[in-house]
Write a structure and sequence with these properties.
alpha/beta; 2-enoyl-CoA Hydratase, Chain A, domain 1; 6-stranded mixed β-sheet
């Protein structure tokens, strides 16, 4: 991981966890995922932190998803790569077991794994310029690992619609669909987050920790077996011709040429 690609800082009672890869639209490499998990662990261990804010550097993207160049690296040991594919889901579990409220700051793109990362937070505060989507199907993949957080916010039919079409959802539609907590003008984004964090910080911390943990335990029943199933499907899908063609087309900036479904 490049120096300072994940930054943990404190702003009073708020822990601020930043993906600092603006040139890659804050994409999620395996190393960044490890850094995010470490940051969540720091926030959990620090009793002075009452709220965790997740953000990306700049206002173009919260996070544009997984690092497709890393996924397309044939030199990576495949067993290690399969193990690494669980890291995003394990990050979600870390966040759900944090015992403290989480906020996603979304000024622009939140796509693929970035959409999942935002959806794993308790609150999504978004700019009117925000765009959400799961475009994996357009590069021969499927958004396996973000299925669980998306189902926290949306109905199964809504999730499947987004996954099958790969279409992008603008901010107003995202608000209407119900997965954006608050939609504001771009220049008011940080003020809205500060106001929400202030309200969350005055809540009883032990009640929040116990109640929030119980909530996610209820909605995430049988979590480990579902993570393993989704991880296995992702690893298998990356061996298929569609994935090889889609990732190659992405790297070469051309339209993919799909074969038949057999």
């Amino acid at each position: 991981m490049g120096e300072n690609e994940v930054i943990f800082a404190k702003d009073g009672q708020i822990g601020v966890l930043t993906i600092n890869r603006p040139d890659q639209k804050n994409a999620l490499s395996n190393e960044v995922l490890a850094g995010l998990r470490e940051g969540v662990a720091r926030a959990r261990a620090d009793r002075a932190v009452r709220v965790l804010l997740l953000r990306g550097t700049g206002d173009e993207a919260f996070c544009a998803g997984g690092d497709l160049r890393q996924m397309n690296d044939a030199t990576v040991d495949q067993f290690a790569a399969h193990d690494g594919r669980s890291q995003l889901a394990l990050l979600f579990r870390d966040m759900w077991e944090l015992g403290k409220p989480t906020i996603a700051r979304v000024p622009g793109y939140a796509l693929a794994g970035g959409f999942g990362l935002a959806a794993a937070c308790d609150f999504i505060i978004a700019s009117e310029r925000a765009v959400f989507g799961v475009p994996e199907v357009t590069v021969g993949l499927w958004p396996y690992m973000i299925t669980l957080p998306l189902l926290h916010w949306l109905s199964p039919k809504q999730v499947l619609n987004l996954m099958l079409t790969g279409r992008r959802v603008k901010a107003a539609e995202a608000m209407a669909m119900g997965f954006v907590s608050e939609l504001v003008q771009p220049e008011k984004l940080d003020d809205a987050i500060a106001a929400l964090a202030e309200r969350l910080c005055v809540a009883a911390p032990q009640s929040v920790a116990l109640g929030r943990t119980a909530f996610y335990a209820a909605v995430n029943h049988d979590l480990d077996s579902r993570i393993r199933m989704l991880q296995a499907h992702l690893s298998v899908s990356l061996t298929m011709p569609d994935a090889r063609e889609g990732l190659a087309a992405f790297a070469e900036k051309r339209k993919p040429q799909w074969g038949d479904s057999s």
